[in-house]
Amino acid sequence: MELSPSVKQISVKDKAKGWEPGSEETYPIIKTGVLAALKDGQRSKGGVVAAKPYNFRLELCKYFYFEQPPSIPWKGSFGRREATWQAPNVEIGFEIFNYVRSNIRIAEQDRQRLKNERRSGGI
After folding, report:
1. DSSP state, residue 66
2. Residues with Cβ < 8 Å from 83, sequence gap 6 or more?
């Protein structure tokens, strides 16, 4: 889904420059970028119209999985490769997004496979 005709990408790393920040640094970049795109999209013809309740979904790439948290204090669910949640507004949805990301894991043998695939150009 395109959120805005003028916001095409939100960069959270630059491998050429060696800038690959962790989740604490990327979270505000993603949140600010998506909120700006939503505002721009709402001003533009044909932009996204978001309505309550706000439903979110995060699906993981190959090799990654969610570590099941002991409890989920909101309306939503965790599967091995997908998490879904509902929020009363976009800002709270992003706060939950940040928590959801903190549960992403990768097994050490899969980390090596991923590195090898990236080196060979497979990803």
Report:
1. E
2. 57, 58, 66, 76, 77, 100, 103
Point out which residues pair with 77 in neighbouring strands: 84
Per residue of the chain (123 residues), what is the pLDDT tens digit?
A: 455 555 556 666 777 787 777 777 878 888 888 788 777 766 666 655 667 888 888 899 889 999 988 888 788 988 999 999 999 988 898 889 888 988 999 999 998 998 888 888 766
Classify each residue of 31-46 as buried b or exposed e, where b means 16 or more C-beta atoms within 10 Å of its C-beta: bebbeebbebbeeeee
CB 1 within 8 A of CB 48: yes
